Amino acid sequence: MNIWFATNNSHKKKELEAILGTVLKIPSEAGIAFDPEETGASFCENALIKARELKKLLRSNDNLVIADDSGLCVDSLDGRPGVFSARYGETDGKKLTSLQKNLLLLEELGDTKKRNARFVCAMVLLMENDRFFIVQETLEGEIVEDRGLLRGDGGFGYDPVFIPCDEHANVEHAPLERTLAEFSDEEKNLISHRGKAGKYIASILKNF
């Protein structure tokens, strides 16, 4: 049984392989053109769109497909960038780099003191078009106050502007001292939205 991950993002593949403890295949490595239009209004809808599209392209029942849709939701921006996290700031089809998106986010937030945010990950394990498991998890945190606090070389995307909160602290949403980009891969996988969702998917895979 082959397990495919519906992404062409090698960072995500590496991260999920570590979480699941198994080898995944992705479309780009198999020469499969995969670029589904993410038209869903929620992370769950987009994850299903990606999983079903890849399943259709594989044309074989001997494949399980995992897909996820994830993003950053900022309370002071009414949940934006949300499902548009990967396309945040995009104009006329021109995408911004991760650094440009992070700087745009800080510009939009300005000097507001309310900087609560969360990473959200919806993850699907698809066996057939209408037979699947889906789970959605979050990682709570806050956005750094200015560009001078962008820190870390690890992770990807919005990790350098996001400070995770200690869910075990006595004070609700007590921030940790590091951005997510300053966590090791192993540390990140223990607390991240994708790590939490992936653990549920891993437990389901054990029954196959």
Descriptive report:
The chain has 208 residues and is α+β, with helices and mostly antiparallel strands. The protein has a single domain, classed as Maf protein, CATH 3.90.950.10. The protein contains five helices and six strands; from the N terminus they run E-H-H-E-H-E-E-E-E-H-H. It has helices at residues 10-20, 43-58, 98-109, 185-191, 193-205; strands at 2-5, 63-74, 116-128, 131-143, 162-166, 174-175. Strand 5 and strand 6 (174-175) form a beta hairpin. Helix 1 (10-20) packs across helix 5 (193-205) and helix 4 (185-191) packs across helix 5.
List keywords for this structure.
208 residues; alpha+beta; Maf protein; six-stranded mixed beta sheet; 6 strands; globular
Give a short summary of the structure:
The protein is an alpha+beta fold and 208 residues long. It has five helices and six strands; from the N terminus they run E-H-H-E-H-E-E-E-E-H-H.
Number of strands: 6
- Individual helix count: 5
CATH topology: the name is Maf protein
The CATH class designation is Alpha Beta
Strand content: 15-25%
Overall geometry:
globular
CA-atom Rg in angstroms? 17 Å
- Uncertain regions: pLDDT < 50 for 5+ in a row? none
H and E string: EHHEHEEEEHH
Helix content: 25-40%
Overall pLDDT: 90
- How many separate domains make up the residues? 1
Largest sheet: 6 strands, mixed
Instruction: State the secondary-structure class.
Output: alpha+beta
Which strand order does the major sheet show?
1-2-3-4-5-6
Distance between the termini: 9 Å
CATH architecture: Alpha-Beta Complex
